[in-house]
From TrEMBL:
<feature type="region of interest" description="Disordered">
    <location>
        <begin position="414"/>
        <end position="435"/>
    </location>
</feature>
<dbReference type="GO" id="GO:0003676">
    <property type="term" value="F:nucleic acid binding"/>
</dbReference>
<dbReference type="GO" id="GO:0009007">
    <property type="term" value="F:site-specific DNA-methyltransferase (adenine-specific) activity"/>
</dbReference>
<dbReference type="GO" id="GO:0005829">
    <property type="term" value="C:cytosol"/>
</dbReference>
<dbReference type="InterPro" id="IPR002052">
    <property type="entry name" value="DNA_methylase_N6_adenine_CS"/>
</dbReference>
<comment type="similarity">
    <text>Belongs to the MT-A70-like family.</text>
</comment>
<dbReference type="InterPro" id="IPR007757">
    <property type="entry name" value="MT-A70-like"/>
</dbReference>
<dbReference type="GO" id="GO:0032259">
    <property type="term" value="P:methylation"/>
</dbReference>
<dbReference type="GO" id="GO:0008173">
    <property type="term" value="F:RNA methyltransferase activity"/>
</dbReference>
<dbReference type="GO" id="GO:0005634">
    <property type="term" value="C:nucleus"/>
</dbReference>
<dbReference type="InterPro" id="IPR029063">
    <property type="entry name" value="SAM-dependent_MTases_sf"/>
</dbReference>
<protein>
    <submittedName>
        <fullName>Methyltransferase 4, N6-adenosine</fullName>
    </submittedName>
</protein>
<dbReference type="Pfam" id="PF05063">
    <property type="entry name" value="MT-A70"/>
</dbReference>
Amino acid sequence: MMSVLVKNKHGWFLDASSLVDQWYSRCVRFKDTQKSRVKCSFKRQCFQILKSHYSVKAEAAVDGGKSEVLEETDKTSKKRKRKHSELNHGEVDLQASHDKVRSVILEGTKSLVDSARSLEHLNRATGLVKEPLPSHECRLVALCEMAKELPLVDEDEQEECVQSLVAEDGRSSHVDLFSRVTENRDDSASVVTLLGEEYVIPSHTAFLLSDFTRIQPLVHYGSRFDLIVIDPPWENKSVKRSRRYSSLPCTQLKRLPIPLLASPNCLVVTWVTNRPSHLRFVRDELYPHWGVEVVAEWFWVKVTTSGQFVFPLDSHHKKPYEVLVLGRYSSSADNSASPSETSVVPVEDQRLIVSVPSALHSQKPSLSEVLKPYIGSEAKRLELFARNLQPGWTSWGNEVLKFQHTSYFTLSPTDEPAGFHQDETPDNFTTSSCH
């Protein structure tokens, strides 16, 4: 896959934008019962992180390893560096956690960035798009709140828990997104009108737009998943100040019905902020509550288009990496049906995923390619608290269509007829029936 540019003993260097474009290489637009072929790509400026948050005189930590001389330039940084004794309790806790992995982050990132540079991936100064980032007011959370007034689908009405995105007559405006799982069963991506606005839906994908109070249709969907990726809306001060999205108390995460969604030996992956208390909660409370055993911790390292850390590695305020906690689900009730231990591929610890991040808040890179060796190509995959869709995945959240809005894409007509078929389709997506 083009998305994995480099793979070595430290981990992977990803080209996230190329992978997204692969998902929409063929796309059909449904409008007024008419179908037309369109060319669709995610807007390039979203992945143009040209400058790190360093002072002008600072050196790049990835190149020289001298991150101790770097200073932050964001609004919350201090004009002078504080001494260790002046750090608050949370910062001291963060520093202790960081010290344990600093060398892993530095050495692995340098290796992967150097390899990416040798492929001239980080040396390109051409093709820059000088346009502002797309700005779209997402109303999905508010719509989910309003949808709570609607009656839930009766569990006895099994045929009603799933629906096709596009009906036989080509219409898509009357699908119930809030209480039924919606599937795009087509071999192509589809541009459709939902809730009065246009969205781009990948091929062979399923999604449910709801919050905790209406997650039941996902449970009754009929699938047990081999991979579950969770991106919780963690509570923190910056989120409260910005009000970019509603956060969730840690204890509420225990309500996620993981035992009802996970297959035996399901790989569970949770995105965690750099707050040590969140990491301890996942390892010591959340995973044990679900019957998930921690098997590894990985790190997503964010770099600029020139290969610098996006934040100073040794910053007391923000780090240029996020943690992923990986675990395997097991249940005494599933032991008889579980495959032998030899069939479970061991997950290596302290691997890095290095990429240029999206400039859009909370848009994470796809883990499809890097996790495939540990789950197999036939695995059924689920993302919880998703803000975008992926081919071959089922996704749930109250902003599940956020980054599928056409404002984030460049769409242009093409002369290719609309009735085409893709050469390749995801081999891990099957439609489900409720039980």
